[in-house]
Every structure is written in C-alpha cells, then in structure tokens.
Design goal:
The chain is an alpha+beta fold and about 220 residues long. It contains 6 helices and 9 strands, in the order E-H-E-E-H-E-E-H-E-E-E-E-H-H-H. Helix content is about 40%, strand content about 15%. The protein has a 4-stranded mixed β-sheet. It has a 3-stranded antiparallel β-sheet with strand order 1-4-3, covered by helices on one side. Strands 6-9 form a two-stranded antiparallel sheet. A hairpin with a 5-residue loop joins strand 7 and strand 8.
C-alpha cells in the first residue's frame, strides 16, 4: 500500500515530515512489541503474536516533475484529485494487510481516548499500551491503536500515533497532558496483572507526593 497526505491543507514538506514520523513510529512500535513479548515470556504468560506493520516498510521519492499538482483548496474537483497515486514527491510504502474474511479490523483506542476493552484480545492491547508507558518511565505512549486480528488471534497494528514528554513525535503529539490522562483513566486488567505491570495510578500518587515534598523543601 502506498501512502501520502491528502492534498487539502498539506504540502510537499508537511507530507514528507509526516510520513517520516509515521515510519519512525512503526519502527518504534515494533520494538515495543518485541519487548512486550519478552516481558510476557519472562512472566510465563502466553500472549498472541503482536507487531506493527513495519516489515519492509520504506520511504520513497520520485522526480517532483512527475507528481500530480494538488488543486486549490476551493476547487470542487479536489476530491477527484485525491485519487491520484502521486500527489507529492515523497511516499510511504507498507505491506497491504488482509482485512476481510477471517481477518477482523479493530480500533482499540483513540488519539486521546484510553482503551477500555473487555475481551481478551482487547485486554492484551491495553496491557501493551501500559507496558510502553512503563518501559519509557511514562515519557512516551502509543495512541490511536488499531489493527487487524487474524484467525490465529495474531494482532498486526498499523497507522500509529503517539504522545511524548517532548511533544515531537509527530503532528498528532499532544505531550504530557494526554499521557497523564491515560495514567488516570487506565484500569489494569488481568493481562496487566499477570505481566506484573505497575499501577499507573499508584505511580501518579507517588510522583505527586514527591513533588509536594520537594516544593515544601524549596519553600523552607
């Protein structure tokens, strides 16, 4: 599958930056998926195969003179222009996923909506999101988690977004505010407990107490 930004509100530079950010996140997400499986193995917990659709993904460029020029925003024909394959000179290529038949496409959380899934596959993904936060000491979280579940319950995630303490993972990044929101709203499920993940709410209380103590010392 070949990906580019839609023409309205975008440009060559925005398209290029966005696609590079997405490829970076796909790669990072796959790294976190590997560490999640290692954690499960160490805890003696068998979880479905989980990965991001990053294998063989790459960024490509073409001669800019061959790219279709996006039409003006107020042009009524802009929708038809979106059907062109090459709107800009940079594109992202990712393996095409099967989403029909015995494969099910699912959305597990939103960009700022915390996942609260109640079935086993959903609990695994929610625990994965928790794992990423713990792995990064609450400085990075994956968001808008969605993917395809196979007949063997394998999970292939795609189109990642994230929030980080530095706020620079991509145009979707809303920083610490959303990370703190997740920590408040996430309810540890059976998979979290089996993997011995630390309660994010308890960590919040501890961090808040530490900040209050430091403030008191500074005031004195």
């Amino acid at each position: 599958a070949l990906f580019m930004h839609k023409p309205v509100g975008s440009s060559n530079e925005l398209n290029k930056a966005g696609l590079h950010a997405e490829l970076d996140l796909l790669t990072q997400g796959n790294g976190f998926a590997q560490s999640f499986k290692l954690r499960a193995s160490a805890a003696g917990v068998k979880v479905p195969d989980l990965k991001y659709n990053a294998e063989n993904a790459f960024i490509g460029t073409i001669d800019s003179s061959l790219a279709a020029r996006p039409l003006p925003i107020d042009d009524m024909a802009v929708e038809s222009n979106e059907e062109c394959s090459l709107l800009f000179d940079t594109f992202l290529v990712i393996p095409l996923l099967q989403t029909k038949g015995v494969f099910t496409e699912r959305k597990f959380s939103g960009n700022t909506q915390t996942g609260d899934n109640t079935d086993y596959i959903g609990e695994v993904v929610d625990a994965f999101a928790h794992h990423v936060l713990e792995e990064t000491s609450r400085t990075f979280m994956l968001a808008d988690i969605q993917g395809v579940v196979g007949p063997d319950r394998s999970i292939t995630l795609f189109d990642p977004q994230a929030h980080s303490s530095t706020g620079d993972s991509g145009e979707w990044d809303q920083g610490n505010e959303v990370i703190e929101k997740f920590c408040k709203e996430h309810h540890c499920n059976n998979v979290c407990r089996k993997l011995l993940l630390t309660s994010l709410r308890e960590q919040q209380v501890e961090n808040l107490s530490t900040r209050h103590s430091l403030t008191y010392i500074m005031d004195q």
